[in-house]
Amino acid sequence: MGTALITGASRGLGRALARELVRDGWHVVVDARDADALAAAAEEIAGEDGGGSVTAVAGDVADPAHRADLVRAVDGGLDLLVNNASTLGPTPMPKLADLPVADLAATFATNVLAPLALIQDLLPSLRERGGAILNITSDAAVENYETWGGYGSSKAALEQLSNVLAAEEPDVAVWWADPGEMNTAMLRAAGEDADSAPPPEEAAAAFRRLIEERPPSGRHRAADLAAAR
Asked: Pfam families from the entry (predicted)?
């Protein structure tokens, strides 16, 4: 199948998507800040049938040294980059009137600048192999949910970066995709009813189909991908 890099893969959507790709025979490089949680996830993912494999590289995507480690981990070539790692910012999530600018800068560092930096580092390989980029965004990028301004604006920025990148890189498929609400620790930390949300495995299955079918660059929603099956 090829080699994929998925950030933020110790839990939630990243972990579920890594599992899907390993089942399909991909070699998947995964990262997360919590080394122990990442090691446990990688061990579970490696046990999936399908002939794929997994390499775990712990660290923070906002750290240039860690990004350099990720680039070295895929130095044999990359076919798919999934920018999934993200942060909500401060919790409980404040209204914009009360959001410290320094906290917003940290949110953008993880949710916008780190993905772009990885893209810049890995574009030569992705161009050479006719690869793809999947940037995980959110409905908060386009909706006006109260207290979601910091996170939502970072995802809106990631969407527009993706939109322009798609125009600039015709040899690379660029998708920016909204997974919808998922039963994850992140949604729970945001104060939402995560228990009533679908499991991340549903969005992962939808995104696996996106990767497999390789439509033109553009914005997608997991719900639409699932409904089109």
From this structure: adh_short (PF00106)
The verdict on whether 151 is a catalytic residue reads yes
- Asked whether the beta carbons of 17 and 82 are under 8 A apart, the reply is yes
**Are 10 and 37 in contact, with CB atoms under 8 Å apart?**
yes
26, 108, 148, 151: which one is catalytic?
151
**Residue 193: what pLDDT?**
87
Nearest CA-CA partner of 122 in 83, 86, 154, 161: 83
| Polymer length of the chain | 229
Query: CATH assignment of 3-227, given 3.90.1150.10, 3.40.50.970, 3.40.50.720, 1.10.3720.10?
Result: 3.40.50.720
pLDDT in tens, 48-57: 777 899 999 9
- Rounded Cα–Cα distance for residues 13 and 207 (Å): 10
CA distance 219 to 229: 17
Domain positions in the chain: 3-227
Closest CA to 118 of 75, 170, 82: 82
Residue 229 to residue 217: CA distance in whole angstroms? 19
Banded model confidence at residue 112, pLDDT cuts 50, 70, 90: very high
